[in-house]
Amino acid sequence: MSGKGGPMATAAAYDEIADWYEREFLGVTDTGHEDPLGLGDLIGELLGEGTGMCLEIGCGTGIHAARVRALGRTPVGVDFSAGMLRHASGRLPVARADAERLPFRDGSVPAVIAVMVHTDMPGYPAVLREVARVLRPGGVFVHIGVHPCFCGGFADRSDPDVVVVRPGYLDGHWTTDSWTDRGVRDKVGATHRPLPELLHAFLDAGLTPERFAESGGPTPVVLAAKTRSAGRKPE
Question: pTM for the complete prediction?
Answer without folding.
Answer: 0.92
